[in-house]
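Minutes, project huddle
Topic: does the predicted pose make sense with alpha-L-arabinofuranose bound?
PN asked that the exact inputs be recorded in the minutes so nobody has to dig through chat later. Recorded below.
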Amino acid sequence: MRRNTFTRTMVAAAATVSMLTLAACGGGSDDPATTGGGGGSSQGGDTIKVGFSQLGAESGWRTANTESVKANLTKENGFDLTFVDAQQKQENQIKALRDFIDQGVDVIAFSPVIETGWDEVLQDIKDADIPVVLVDRTVDTTVADPFVTWIGADFTKEGVTAGEWVKENHPDAKIFELQGTMGSGAQTNRQEGFRSVVGDNVIGEASGNFTRAEGKAATEAALAAYPDMDLIFAHNDDMGLGAIEAIEATGKKPGVDIKIVTVDGVRDGLQALVDKKFNYVVECNPAFGDQLAELIKKVAAGEQVEKSTIVVDEAFDQTITQEFVDSRTF
Ligand code: AHR
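Predicted holo structure (tokens), as shared on screen:
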């Protein structure tokens, strides 16, 4: 059966122009799409009932993203938000989505923990005529037009940016890749982007499920299995922070004996960069709750919205200052 796959790679090509637009005006997008459904929402003064299924609380990035969503989908801003944390379990997310159907919300927003396995519930949401806004990660489904719009980062580009820094600064690196949750868009696309640049240098890989504890455990195993590895590419800051603990426990110096490149740029990650334990951090900005709120308002009103909105990211090396880290809002 033909799958309706929506990947960052597809978005990335179309997003170049829109990213310039984003840099100029703080919002942005590519090809337009018309919203579907919207059943009886709140334009004209009523509140918009939103069911939001967050995938978990696995990382500093996720905590910051949740805070941004909750700070913007407020009563004062016209929303009646039901927020459910799925604790990194797809079955919990599917249950929450079904509950949202039963509650008759105006809009369903969710951040899918992995890409596949959503066909049935997405079809049910569609049959209930409730518009879907995808947040952060993406889906791979046989359902036609499974969502109205998506907002998130270009994970493939993040991987490419990390790979280009490694290629330029450590072209002979022996790399261990500390992957995120297997089957998530953030894992598959960061891996794809990174390996398109320095794939030949990767000597080992394992998943740390985007958490500090599992990142530490995976690094401990990797230090034993790949004694000559000298660079870790961690798919997020938290796993990189776990790697620091594992490396220091062996008496080696993170950032020197074993270089560490990560993605996210949350305050703890940037602190490790200032402390010279991380070497390079590609940003994945979680604070897009304001843009999400605007999109949901338009979707609920049945207005035209862009099919995708790419959140703009930066990248940081060890030249950032302590003042910069202290002023970080996430
Ligand atoms: O989907 C975004 C990723 O999910 C972030 O990079 C990571 O920290 C989080 O767990």
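Observations noted during the meeting:
- The two ends are 42 Å apart (CA to CA).
- The first strand starts at residue 4 and ends at 5.
No decisions taken; revisit at the next huddle.
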